[in-house]
Design goal:
The chain has 123 residues and is an all-alpha fold. The chain has seven helices and no strands. The chain folds into two domains: 10-50; 58-115, lambda repressor-like DNA-binding domains (434 Repressor (Amino-terminal Domain)). The longest helix has 20 residues, at 31-50. The protein is elongated, with a radius of gyration of 21 Å.
């Protein structure tokens, strides 16, 4: 496949995806490997423009990490504060502070950019 322009239509996108699948295991240094790298970049650009990902919710990120690590609410106390504060934060009744964000970032390896995003307030 000769790449001549950016991906602009859904049909071009689907064609690029099929080609990526076909050359996915191309040997490093081959023409197909170079084509693969370029196609991946073009597909990524198209997806970012046409299928934007919503900003992650910091509370959902914390809950997911807790599940991944097998943590309970009490395990967050060193990072957030006493059990009352942990409860308020996880129930979206209190926002994360800069200190909490730093602690969660360092202690749980959560990306700071996720933690500083405004939480989705649910009723």
């Amino acid at each position: 496949m000769k790449i001549q322009k950016l991906i602009e239509t859904e049909q071009e996108y689907e064609t690029a995806i099929r080609r990526i699948d076909a050359i996915f295991d191309a040997p490093e240094g081959s023409k197909e490997a170079d084509e693969l790298k370029l196609l991946v970049l073009l597909v990524k650009k198209y997806e970012e423009e046409n299928y934007p990902m919503p900003e992650p919710d910091p509370i959902e990120a914390i809950l997911l990490r807790m599940e991944e690590l097998g943590l309970e609410r009490k395990d967050l106390e060193p990072f957030i504060g006493d059990k009352t504060i942990v409860s308020k934060v996880l129930n979206r009744k209190r926002d994360l502070t800069v200190k909490m964000i730093r602690n969660l970032h360092q202690g749980l390896r959560l990306p700071a950019e996720v933690l500083i995003a405004p939480p989705v307030h649910r009723l």
